Structures are given as structure tokens and as C-alpha cells.
Amino acid sequence: MQEKNTKLAIVTGGGSGIGLAITEKFVAHNIRTIIIGRDRQKLDAAKDRLGALCIPVAADLSDLGAIPALVQDITTRYGRIDILVNNAGINLKKPFTEVTDQEFQQILLTNLTAVFALSREVVKQMAHSGSGAIINISSMAAQYGIPKVIAYTASKSAIEGMTKAMAVELSPQGIRVNCIAPGFIATDMSAKALDNDPERKQKVLSRTPMGMLGAPADIGDAALFLAGDAARYITGVVLPVDGGNSIGF
Predict the structure, then answer these.
(1) Average pLDDT along the chain
(2) NCBIfam families this protein is in (predicted)?
């Protein structure tokens, strides 16, 4: 069970990239953080790097039927869940007409339906204590149109709508719900995409007023703020952390 004054967080996709950066910030501020992901090796590497406050849990969140038991197990072992960060997500870059029904559904399952199912089960636990903070992760794809990512865009636009609906329904119960919309962040995944496509990289930088990619830690700082008492009167917002990209000309 958790020690007094130590909050408990869950970060999905916490083994790498933005999820790992969020976990790093949480752990540095004495928040015990359970990282959920499919890749046990990545999770264990994160644990080795971040120490005792980082707790790896291997699970496939697209297996919706297993989510209630997963959340029950976490609360039984570690106590009350104070913070949930829905960060796990997958992308598919493909021309619109070539995306199959199955591919579209798979992206929605992982990026949207699993977020709903996990949030629902965590909220049942948070409601007992009358407090909690949920942070969903969106994308620039929900702020403006980006070609060849139709399923991803649909999922992230839905996440932003769901954030607002959740916030209105859950805030009276003491559960705040907010969303971060990262701009173009320098991760292994984005580096692979942008370095192989110099034209796209140039476009990204030219429409970002600050003229540079963000760092994963920038998203970590935003998540730490939204999860904490400094944001106690903030709910239902979508916060772009993007160097001005979403308003860039």
C-alpha cells in the first residue's frame, strides 16, 4: 500500500518516449508511478533507470475484457490511484483510400476505446476518495489536418471531445480531466518519421514559431502541472505544448 503523502499514478505507454518523460517527472517529484505497456523489456529498462518509485506492469490494453481486473489488482496491491495519464497510442501512416476497415478499427481500439475503458475503471476507484486527476494525450492531428493519418486523427479528435465530456461529468465528484496536445516532439518515433522525410521536417519547423522540436520533458512538465495542486481549478482544457505550432502561419 502507498505511504502517506506519496501519490500513486498510472502512465500508459510509460516505457518510452513521452510516457517515459512523464514518468521521469512524476518519480522525481515523489509520485509512485505504475507504467503499463506491452513490451516487458522496455518497462524493465525504465524501472532500472528510474528506481523504486517506478513500477512496471506488462499488459495489453487493447484486451478490453482484462482491464477491470487489472485496475482492481493495482488498487489491491498499491492503494488508491490519484493520477491517470492515458498516453499509450499507435499510429498508421497510409493514404486515405488504402486504409482498411480493420486497420481503422485497430487504431480506434488502442487510442480511444481502451482509453475510455481504463478511465472508466479508474474513475470507479477515484470516486471512492472524491479526488483524482486524469490527463489524456492528444496530438496536433486533432488541431489541424495532417495527410495520411486518418485513423489516428479520428482517434485524437475523439479524445479531445471525450476529455470535455468527462470533465463536465466527473469534476463535481472531485475528479479533474484535462488533455495535452503535444506538438512535434523529438522522440525516436518522430525522428524516424521526420529524418526520412526532409520536406515534412522543414514544414514542421517552418510553421512552428519557436523554430524547433519540443523535448519529451516539455510534455512531462505539463503533465506534472496538470496532475498537481497548482492546477486545482483547471479542468476540461486541451493544452497545446507545441512551440506555437497550432497557431503558426
Answers:
(1) 95
(2) PRK07231.1, PRK12826.1-2
